[in-house]
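PROTEIN–LIGAND DATA SHEET

This sheet pairs a single protein chain with one bound small molecule, zinc ion, given as SMILES. Inputs appear in the order they were entered. The predicted three-dimensional arrangement of chain and ligand is reported afterwards as a token string under its own label.
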Amino acid sequence: MTNVQLKKDHIRLLDDELTLHPSNEACGVFIGRKEKSSIIVEIVLPIKNSRPSDRSFELDSKEHYEAWNRADEEGMEIVGVYHTHPHSKASPSAWDRESMENYQTLWVIVGVDGVKGYVWDDGVKQIEIIAVA
Ligand SMILES: [Zn+2]
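PREDICTION REPORTED AS:
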């Protein structure tokens, strides 16, 4: 994977997630599809953080399950997860790095310095985010 395509509306939604949850991390999933060199995001789905904290998150299992069903219904798949860093930069924390190794998918972090994407490829690698209309 070399890049991820997010619609401008998606990026706006992610920025809103940061603003709407000033004290704890917000989280959610991306529904879309994978092409040769791109992850194409079609739907950004916020999911409740079932363990509210400003340093970590846990996707609510019921809502996460519903998201899988939704992706299936749409003929797509869950292609990644996002979470916010309410007080820090969009760089993976030690907790994030460990989680990325255990759950190898696209990870998007929304921090005070913007929106950044990462994948695990023998270590954490940043992946380019392309904003599409
Ligand atoms: Zn984090």
